[in-house]
Amino acid sequence: MLRALFSQGESWKRIRRFMQTDLLSPDAAKGYVKGMIRACQTASQGAPLHAKNINEYAAQCSFDMFSSIVFGDFPGLAGSGKKEERDATFCHSSITALELIVPMVLDPTERLRSSLGLKSKTYSIFEANFGVAREIASQKIAEFKARKANGELYNDFEKNSYASLAIDRFLSSVGEEDALEEEDVGEIIMVALIAALDTTSAMLNWCIVHLAMNPHVQEELFKEISSNVTAEGQLTTDYFSKSNSAYLNALLRENHRLTPPIAFNLTKENVTDEVEIHNVTLPKQSMVVLDTRSLGMNPDVVEDPDSFDPSRWFDEEQVRGRKGTIAEFLDHPLYREPFSAGARKCPGSRVANYEAKVMLSQLVLDWKISLSSNDKKIKSWRDVSYFNGLTIQPTVPELSFEKRQ
């Protein structure tokens, strides 16, 4: 099944349709926000405990949020309370495995070893960690299926979770010609659970870096958030509509321009015939990669490109000024987020966007975030080291969290 997810043809379409149902549509993704808010309220309280290891914290936040989506469960791994060792092991193993994918793909010796039936040390580490994550995910799925079969899903979060709805869809399709096998459904949930950690945590990590380095941006965001909370000071689902969260959306777009978790938005194979674009001939079966970062960092296109400035995206004068110029590409839909587009768009893209928005909002609502006074070397985001695993992850410097009144 894993291989089919990255293939073509009817088998891929069948699995893709099943996977994205109850996940990709706007209504489906929005339906999970209430659970995300609950998960983030708990996760935010653990932020100061992870001040020296925000990378681990962001992965655990991602796990907590996606657990609320997949199972309607609230493990609180990133929070300050009691945690399950199995959940921590799952997060660590998943991130360790995912970080090795791109380095292996880019290493020409990996393919040679594979063709000879040999395993490199890197591949062995990947295989071991992915195996651990897969086993834990399978256990969680089996436990959830048993509880559902026994009528032991007791609240709406569990009953309306992605896993519950996927099981219902599978059961209603039994006997149909193109129905999936039961083990395929488990594999789909397992892949979603593992893959969900990396992209969301990369977005969170970079955004947290920029917020810590730009207190004026952080305070502008706090003003917007605090004017959209309940009387008790809690986030609401309504805040995350575009009309209510303009600055938050602009912040994510600016993060994508400056430090995207993936440096290209689209990879497509020319499967039809030879194509000529701008006097360049693209042979049939050639791969086309849409690089979305280079122009966004070009000073001839973007004023002061190293500056983190969310106002670029909602200042009407700036937006109008880009019309009819090369900078107009900045407002193209394919440039707005790191999830690709079309049939191969990430099926969890809308959910991941909500996860980043909710977690960042809860953190800024609860804390003033800054660089620790222990780190004198970081003067700019360019001083932050990073590594290219499955996504481009910063090594977040030590932070300080001051409780807001």
Summarize the structure.
With 405 residues, the protein is mostly helical. Helices cover 51% and strands 8% of the residues.
What is this structure's SSE topology?
Layout: H1 2-5, H2 9-20, H3 26-30, H4 33-44, H5 54-70, H6 85-99, H7 101-106, H8 108-115, H9 121-149, H10 156-159, H11 162-173, H12 182-213, H13 215-226, H14 246-258, E1 264-269, E2 275-277, E3 280-282, E4 287-291, H15 316-322, H16 349-366, E5 367-371, E6 386-388, E7 392-394, E8 399-403
Antiparallel strand pairs: 1-4, 2-3, 5-8, 6-7
Helix pairs in contact: 4-5, 4-16, 5-6, 5-12, 6-9, 6-12, 9-12, 12-14, 12-16, 13-14
Walk me through this protein's architecture.
This protein is mainly α. The protein contains 16 helices and eight strands. The chain has a two-stranded antiparallel ribbon. Helix 12 crosses helix 14, helix 12 (182-213) runs parallel beside helix 16 (349-366) and helix 13 packs antiparallel against helix 14 (246-258). The chain starts with a helix and ends with a strand.
